[in-house]
Design brief:
With 383 residues, the protein is an alpha+beta fold. The protein has helices spanning 3-11, 25-57, 62-73, 78-87, 98-108, 114-121, 136-140, 144-151, 168-174, 227-237, 240-249, 256-269, 274-288, 302-306, 308-327, 351-356, and strands at residues 133-135, 178-180, 184-185, 192-193, 199-201, 205-210, 331-335, 342-347, 360-362, 379-381. It has a 6-stranded mixed sheet with strand order 1-8-7-6-5-2. Helix 10 runs antiparallel to helix 13.
């Protein structure tokens, strides 16, 4: 039996007489519509055959075949991804580039194993259930390249223009207790109230996310230049000739740990009281770090002002606590976006212990990462 006869037999029951009456206008109208569908399906089968033929005749590597297979399998998942984002509060109007941002996200995931993701998403874990540090793919039992694909998503800015960085969407899409933050508008004044943190963490508060080389504050040239503060401090504690010499000595890098240590010892040798030296250094550090008055929490003993390792630890603690207070951050998640998905989650009450153990540190491994011209240095995960 030829395909057309077979098809007509399969649809005969839909006609009152058990077959299409060529003299009945209604029968002919119905038949025309059904034949169109048949032709479309036939064309689809023909296209599939052509695609299979092209693949069979192409000299593709195993990696290329895997990539194409994933891409084809993911075609029907675009709307599922968009719905998942919407469920977490990431609708088109949340992005600066609207629908184009959503298109970029789905394109970035074109070669990811979305079947594995959606299987996981049926019963996702909470961030609270994870160990405080580790590797995301090991904690979740998922392929490393799948996690990496989601971490690397960067859809551009949000509706206010602030950048949505790596791992922000990943956290919202993979963890049941993570959502996105959003700006709010004062209904009476129309004032935009900026959201705190990058994501919200249920039961904890505002979660800030820092990738490889992230900073707790603005980079050099965009934030506070504390070099003038340092120069005034030196002039206040040393005679003019000694002050000029010390400033000149540190003029290339203005390393905070070395310059603070040398200034402390030199001023002390000149007979300046330790109390005066400490108070003046603390005052300048508070001015540099958002004026929060927290430097005295970390700079207490002589060793805090003279030991390079201790100075660097104290500066990082001061940087983290001051930044969190100003930005309304309750926890920071550091993730190795350039490597193998390592992470560490640090609640603000745990900053000190984490820094003492160097779980996160400046990208400069020694005690020289902080500079007066760069008081918010790049940071790395060390787990």
């Amino acid at each position: 039996m030829d395909p057309i006869t077979k098809y007509l037999n399969s649809i005969a029951y839909k006609f009152p007489k058990g077959y299409p009456d060529m003299n009945d206008s209604k029968d002919m109208e119905l038949l025309n519509e059904m034949v169109k569908d048949f032709i479309k399906e036939d064309e689809k089968e023909d296209l599939k055959s052509k695609l299979i033929s092209i693949i069979n005749s192409s000299d593709l590597s195993d990696d290329e075949i895997i990539a194409y297979t994933k891409s084809i399998a993911n075609r029907g998942r675009k709307e599922d991804i968009i719905k998942t984002l919407a469920d977490k509060g990431y609708t088109a109007d949340r992005f600066k580039f609207k629908d184009k941002a959503l298109e970029k996200i789905t394109k970035d995931l074109d070669n990811a194993d979305l079947k594995a993701y959606f299987n996981y998403a049926e019963n996702p874990k909470s961030l609270k259930s994870l160990n405080p540090s580790g590797k995301f793919h090991e904690e979740l039992g998922l392929p490393s390249d799948l996690i990496k694909a989601f971490i690397d998503i960067e859809p551009g800015g949000d509706q206010s223009g602030s950048a949505i960085g790596k791992a922000e969407l990943f956290l919202s899409m993979f963890f049941s207790d993570i959502g996105n933050t959003s700006d709010k508008i004062n209904k009476e004044t129309g004032e935009v109230i900026k959201a705190k943190g990058d994501n919200t963490w249920q039961g904890v508060g505002n979660l800030e996310i820092k990738g490889t080389g992230g900073r707790l504050g603005q980079q050099a040239g965009r934030g506070i230049d504390a070099v003038p503060l340092f120069k005034r401090l030196v002039a206040d504690l040393l005679p003019e000739d000694e002050a000029e010499e010390l400033i000149k000595k540190h003029s290339q890098y203005f390393t905070m740990s070395k310059s603070i240590s040398e200034l402390y010892n030199q001023a002390k040798e000149n007979g300046v009281s330790e109390t005066e030296i400490q108070n003046k250094i603390i005052k300048v550090l508070d001015q540099a770090y958002w004026g929060q008055g927290m430097a005295e929490n970390y700079f207490k003993t002589e060793e805090d002002f003279t030991n390079l390792e201790e100075i660097t630890k104290n500066l990082l603690k001061l940087n983290a606590e001051s930044y969190s207070k100003v930005k309304g951050v309750d926890a920071i998640l550091f993730v190795d976006t350039a490597g193998d998905n390592k992470y560490i989650i640090v609640k603000k009450e745990d900053y000190n212990d984490t820094i003492d153990n160097k779980k996160f540190w400046t990208t400069t491994k020694g005690p020289t990462g902080f500079q007066w011209k760069n008081i918010n240095p790049n940071l790395n995960v060390n787990v």
